[in-house]
Design a protein that fits this description.
α5 packs parallel to α9 and α6 runs parallel beside α7. With 617 residues, the chain is α/β, with parallel strands linked by helices. A hairpin with a 3-residue loop joins β1 and β2. The protein contains 20 helices and 30 strands. It folds into three domains: 99 residues, Peptidase S8 propeptide/proteinase inhibitor I9 (Alpha-Beta Plaits, 2-Layer Sandwich), CATH 3.30.70; 334 residues, 3-Layer(aba) Sandwich (Rossmann fold), CATH 3.40.50; 37 residues, no CATH class. The strands form nine sheets. Strands 14, 15, 16, 18, 20, 21, 22 and 25 form an eight-stranded mixed beta sheet that branches. It has a six-stranded mixed beta sheet with strand order 7-8-12-9-11-10, with helices on both faces. It has a three-stranded antiparallel beta sheet with strand order 17-13-19.
Length: 617
């Protein structure tokens, strides 16, 4: 990459926006003095951008305890060794995984650093070590060394919501009525900033399990000091009249991994995954929502957070991840960060649903991230309402104090972001599981994709196969296809008796055959989709977006990502309010056979009875 003038303005996912002062999730905002979760504070050493897929592998010689064969090499995330050499006095916050398990990972820093947290779920340890010792640690065989990178919330933007989203997405048809209540749903885990459980949105705490607090960062107020988690939970499972969420009878497990500024450490989010896995049966946890993303780019098979959410998926917990708010209206941004870059989980982009329930005015939200991951997978798979959303936020939360002009009524704010599209799908997934308990997580994903509505005004792939149609998905009577069929064949048993992804076999397969994924989308079971399975099949994985040849060219990477908006771009979203639900909008809704409410539902819905419209038969 060519050297740049110190005063040249940065505007991309790695550096954010600014002059020679770096401002981004990896380095923080501190001028020449670096202050961030990876390096700690201090130093005026220059920082170089890292091309995402340049990997550093420490070769190791033969040893006596493995019959003279070379042990597995150690992987060090791109740029870590280089930065350690330039800043030897700094403290590194790392996650070290070991092929031999957690004990071996912790032992690798014995006498060289300290262990902050054991991460048994992925055979890893979160550690603090002096930068000068990194090279010595990397001499140990079988390690994967990555940054314990800061985690960001995936969206907090603002304008006004007319609460049309439950009707347009089809979730309103799943609420049931007093005469015909919907089936009991399981528990949804909200991995976020906590929840204000006392609110009427959650039946005064009657549906909220005791909060699990795992954040290592301060300040962290009791309940939900940020407000983001309460907002997300109200979209997924709120029950207050006028603000019902996708699954208003669900139990909620709040897991607090964020401080009051909306930042977490990767290791804390992994600890949340471990808690969910250990308690999934006792607490009936069926869905986990992650409206957040890492600030470090990695291949999904090396990223510790991706590996953690995969453990949930392989053990029957449906994982929903926000795509991120660093997209651009000018073209694809890529989906670059865990957990949204993982090919197994359901990644959700944001749809601007416009002014009417019909799809004529729907479009991709301009800041919603989309495109290929570092490993060539097209993301997101699905879009859902995420612009002009109204949700619950505690009056004392930092979101409320930062954006008082977005408070629409006491205790409620209007915000936008993929953070709020994800829980629409998460709540819907819980509704599907209640109605189809025999479906696997892969089939739930398949049903949501199969029944999605095409968004004519959206660039191809920007909201995956299309927009959520919850009613059609819930009513699907067949056997849904496995949306992960292509990658499932690379799953192998691990030492703990669970499953893990065989990245070596996958890399070999895709090098040998660029059409390795085509069979998954050519299956006849996708024939009922309203979107073209052939076109999605061709676009769902791209050899051009994968491999050392693409990512090894620094100038290519610079040109591709230099104009990418940072996550904060969504916060500058337009503030014009969307119209309220009226007679014309309800008539539009009732004309759609998938979305139309029954007479009983209209009679039980104050919003529907407030206007006049034809009734569904």
């Amino acid at each position: 990459m060519n050297p740049r003038n110190r005063n040249e303005r940065r505007a991309n996912a790695l550096w954010g926006r600014g002059d020679h002062t770096r401002a981004n999730g990896m380095w923080g905002r501190s001028g020449n003095a670096r202050a961030n979760a990876l390096w700690g504070r201090g130093g005026r050493a220059a920082v170089l951008a890292v091309v995402a897929a340049i990997t550093i592998v420490i070769p190791l010689g033969a040893s006596a305890d493995n019959g003279g064969k070379s042990k597995a090499p150690t992987f060090v995330a791109p740029g870590l060794l280089d930065q350690a050499e330039k800043n030897p006095g700094q403290k590194l916050h790392l996650i070290i995984q070991s092929s031999a398990g957690t004990g071996s990972a912790a032992a690798s820093v014995r006498g060289l650093g300290s262990v902050r947290k054991q991460l048994d779920l992925i055979g890893a340890a979160a550690v603090d070590v002096p930068a000068a010792r990194l090279k010595e640690i990397a001499k140990n065989p079988g390690l994967t060394i990555t940054a314990d990178a800061p985690i960001k919330l995936s969206g907090t933007v603002a304008p006004y919501s007319n609460e049309m989203w439950p009707y347009e997405s089809g979730v309103a048809k799943l609420w049931g009525t007093p005469a015909s209540p919907g089936p009991a749903t399981g528990t949804i885990a909200i991995v976020d900033s906590g929840i204000d459980a006392t609110r009427a949105d959650f039946d005064g705490g009657g549906r909220v399990l005791p909060q699990v607090t795992l954040t290592s960062r301060t300040p962290n107020s009791p309940g939900d000091g940020r407000g983001h988690g309460t907002f997300v939970a109200s979209i997924a499972a709120g029950s207050t009249p006028g603000h019902a969420g996708a699954a208003p009878n669900a139990r909620i497990l709040p897991i607090d991994v964020m401080d009051d500024t909306g930042t977490a450490l990767t290791s804390d989010v992994i600890a949340a995954c471990s808690y969910i896995l250990q308690n999934r049966t006792a607490l009936n946890i069926r869905v986990a929502n992650f409206s957040l993303h890492s600030s470090a780019q990695n291949h999904f098979y090396n990223d510790p957070l991706d590996q953690a959410v995969e453990k949930l998926w392989f053990n029957g917990v449906f994982v929903v991840a926000a795509a991120g708010n660093y997209g651009s209206a000018t073209g694809p941004s890529g989906v670059l960060y865990a957990p949204g870059n993982d090919p197994f989980v359901m990644t959700v982009g944001a749809v601007d649903i416009g002014n009417r329930p019909s799809l004529n005015d729907d479009k991709t939200a301009p800041w919603s991230a989309w495109g290929y991951t570092e490993d060539g997978f097209s993301k997101p798979e699905l879009g859902a309402p995420g612009r002009y959303m109204v949700g619950a936020v505690p009056a004392s939360a930092t979101l409320t104090s930062e954006r008082p002009d977005h408070v629409v009524s006491p205790g409620y704010m209007e915000l936008s972001g993929t953070s709020f599209a994800a829980p629409v799908v998460a709540g819907t997934a819980l509704q599907l599981i209640a109605r189809h308990p025999s479906w696997t997580v892969d089939q739930i994903k398949g049903a949501l994709m199969l029944t999605a509505k095409t968004v004519g005004n959206a660039p191809r792939g920007s909201v995956g196969v299309g927009e959520l149609n919850a009613a059609r998905a819930a009513e699907y009577g067949g056997t849904p296809p496995n949306a992960n069929r292509a990658v499932d064949k690379f799953l192998v048993p691990d030492a703990a008796g669970s499953l893990s992804f065989d990245s070596a076999s996958w890399n070999t397969a895709v090098k040998a055959n660029a059409s390795w994924m085509a069979a998954s989308w050519g299956d006849a079971s996708w024939g009922e989709a309203s979107w073209s399975t052939a076109s999605w099949g061709a676009a769902s994985w791209s050899a051009a977006s994968w491999g050392d040849a693409s990512w090894g060219d620094a100038s290519w990477a610079d040109a591709s990502w230099a104009d990418m908006s940072s996550e904060d771009a969504a916060e500058s979203d337009a503030s014009a309010p969307a119209p309220a639900m009226d007679a014309a909008a309800l008539a539009d809704l009732q004309a759609d056979p998938d979305l139309a409410l029954t007479p009983d539902q209209v009679a039980a819905d104050p919003l529907a009875t407030a206007v006049t419209a034809p009734m569904a038969p």
